[in-house]
Design goal:
Layout (H helix, E strand, L loop, with lengths): L27 E4 L6 H13 L8 H4 L10 H10 L5 E4 L13 E6 L2 H14 L2 H8 L13 H10 L11 H13 L6 E5 H6 L1 H12 L8 H7 L2 H6 L32 H11 L5 H8 L9
Parallel strand pairs: 1-2, 1-3, 3-4
Length: 301
């Protein structure tokens, strides 16, 4: 008998909302830590499922974020129950915090941790924290934290020795999420995708996901579907893809850059070497080799 999923709780998320979730054959769970390519992966799944370059509804309605506390679970579950298309559900929870059901496929999106960190820095400033606290029922006023310059913040992020299960957006937390998925990469219903692979070969990666999900796409449909998943195309219609609830100050800023390598423009070679030494303490070497030099994942499909 498998162990019960670990319960991850933050001010905004509660993985306990997965308990008792009624899975269906073909369900897709998209698991990625913040700023690791979750929305991009959701969009790709949507395009493969609906096989049209324009979605029939905003992405957040088609692919609800089950464990996000901005909407009551009692509201999200009926929305999923009413869906008649193949369901694809968003979560930022590691797979050890989600029920693992043989009927579902679990896609874990990964990104170079330093690119995740730079994106997190900018994303945090784009969140309307007062609105977030209102939607999640958190009490008390928002107390703005003193914001370090990006380079200083990034170095502090690298050196932070946080509890990975409590601080999921810390470097240990990001690596905990990915290490858990990496250990499961041989499971037939677990698929890993890398942000840099999507950037380098979007068409090839979309075809790979279609194969893993058992979705047949007519050959003439591919060019439009790939174009619809392009970063600039999504950025141009940002309001259709961002999280619901008005929690962002700018929808367009949600799609800030979309290209890897931001940290190398900020940190010195010595600081990059310090990052590599630090991350080697919290993740296995084969996972780090893939994260730092994508394209070599040996996984069926």
């Amino acid at each position: 008998m498998s162990a019960a999923p670990f319960r991850y709780i933050t001010g905004d998320e509660d993985s306990g909302r997965w308990v008792g979730f009624p899975f269906r054959d073909g369900d897709i769970v998209i698991s990625a830590r913040s700023r690791s390519g979750t929305t991009w992966t959701q969009m790709i799944c949507a395009l493969l499922i609906f096989q049209a370059p324009w979605l029939p509804a905003p992405l957040g309605q088609l692919s609800p974020w089950l464990d996000h506390r901005t909407a009551p679970r009692e509201q999200v579950l009926p929305l999923l129950e009413a869906q008649r298309h193949r369901r694809f559900i968003k979560t930022h929870t590691p797979l050890d915090g989600v029920p693992l059901d043989a009927r579902a496929t679990y896609i874990v999106a990964a990104r170079h941790p330093l690119d995740v960190a730079v994106s997190l820095y900018h994303h945090s400033m784009n969140i309307d924290h007062a609105r977030m606290r209102q939607l999640t029922g958190q009490q008390g006023p928002v107390v703005p934290a003193a914001r370090k310059p990006l380079r200083d913040w990034l170095l502090a992020w690298i050196g932070n020795d946080a509890d990975p299960r409590e601080f999921l957006d810390s470097l240990p937390g990001v690596m905990w999420h990915l290490s858990d998925a990496w250990a499961r990469r041989g499971d037939p219903n677990v698929v890993l995708v890398h942000y840099s692979d999507l950037s380098a070969d979007l068409a090839g990666q979309m075809r790979r996901l279609a194969r893993r999900l058992g979705i047949a796409v007519p050959e003439p449909a591919w060019p439009e579907l790939v174009q619809a998943a392009a970063f600039e195309r999504m950025r141009a219609s940002a309001g259709w893809f961002v999280p619901a609830g008005g929690i962002l100050r700018s929808n367009t800023a949600f799609f800030r850059r979309g290209q890897p390598g931001a940290a190398r423009e900020i940190l010195s070679e010595q600081e990059i070497a310090g990052y590599r030494a630090r991350v080697a303490q919290v993740a296995p070497p084969d996972l780090l080799a893939w994260l730092h030099t994508p394209g070599g994942l040996t996984q069926p499909g």
